[in-house]
Design a protein that fits this description.
Largest sheet: 9 strands, antiparallel
Distance between the termini: 12 Å
Shape: elongated
Structural class: alpha+beta
Low-confidence stretches: none
Mean pLDDT: 90
Helix content: 40-55%
Order of helices and strands: HHHHHHEEHHEEEEHEEE
Number of strands: 9
Strand content: 15-25%
Number of helices: 9
Length: 278
């Protein structure tokens, strides 16, 4: 439950700083994880990307200010909009009316979010714990945006590119290391989220890059089914159902997908979630 408490403390911080530029790294520090994992956890738990939640909360507060008589230009500046046009667009996307009509229209209120541990399903979630020394992965990577929705579009697109460019056989020839088969690796570099289609390898062949994965403990979840829906569902359940009740936290390491049988219609796979004891 401490994990849930820290997520709620991060939400309290966000609520207190809605009129400031949101510091995602500070939210992640409060939640005791990397900003990459914080945003992934938030998107899974909230059902919307962090940026969308912030926009909805700001526009809820903006509507309250306008109804209390504040000027549109003042409210726009208060919530970080230098351009009245941008503020008008954001306000209408949430409320369906222009800011100047706030006191006349039907407005939508998005309340501050609180997280709790809930009882879900009864379906088993197969997992095991593993500890690995540091290792290296090599492959083809691309930027995947900073939300789960973008991840779910960008990662499959990179797999399609890998197939079209016939790089999979070359990757498998390089494979050396603790994890078998093809890998999908999600990691954060500064503010940039990237995804790699690769393998464990000591060196990268021409046209590929390498990432170093630190020594870590992992929760490994097994699954099977059509891609990408089957693995995305296992990832969602691992974060929403297993992690909050496990006594573990997200560790500062990449998320890894291991494809033991990379058959698009019925893949056999594992999700490796980096974890640590608080």
């Amino acid at each position: 439950m401490e994990w849930i408490d820290r997520m709620n403390a991060a939400m309290d911080y966000l609520e207190e700083h809605l009129t400031d530029k949101i510091d995602v790294s500070e939210l992640a520090r409060i939640a005791c994880c990397s900003s990459f994992h914080f945003q992934r956890m938030f998107s899974y738990m909230a059902g919307v990307p962090l940026g969308e939640y912030v926009r909805r909360r700001r526009m809820t507060r903006a509507a309250e200010d306008l109804c209390n008589g504040a000027r549109v230009t003042d409210v726009a500046a208060r919530y970080g909009y230098d351009s009245p046009t941008a503020f008008n667009r954001a306000f209408q996307s949430v409320h369906g009316v222009a800011p100047s009509k706030a006191r006349e229209g039907c407005l939508r209120a998005y309340m501050p979010m609180r997280f709790s541990l809930s009882v879900t399903g009864g379906a088993p979630l197969a997992y095991r714990l593993e500890k690995l020394d540091a290792f290296r992965v090599a492959g083809l990577s691309a930027s995947i945006g900073d939300s789960i929705a973008e991840n779910f579009q960008s990662a499959p697109a990179l797999w399609e590119r890998a197939v079209q460019e016939n790089v999979v056989p070359r990757l498998l020839q390089m494979a050396r290391g603790p994890l078998p088969g093809l890998l999908g690796v999600s990691a954060q570099f500064g503010e940039n989220w990237r995804y790699m289609v690769g393998v464990c390898a000591e060196k990268a062949g021409e046209g590929f890059e390498t990432w170093d994965v630190p020594a870590c403990e992992w929760a490994v979840f097994s699954g099977q089914g059509p891609m990408p829906g089957a693995i995305q569902e296992i990832e969602r359940r691992a974060v929403l159902e297993w992690l909050p009740a496990s006594g573990y936290e997200y560790a500062d390491a990449p998320d890894i997908e291991v494809y033991l049988l990379p058959e698009p219609q019925d893949a056999v796979f594992e999700v490796w979630l980096p974890i640590l004891r608080p």
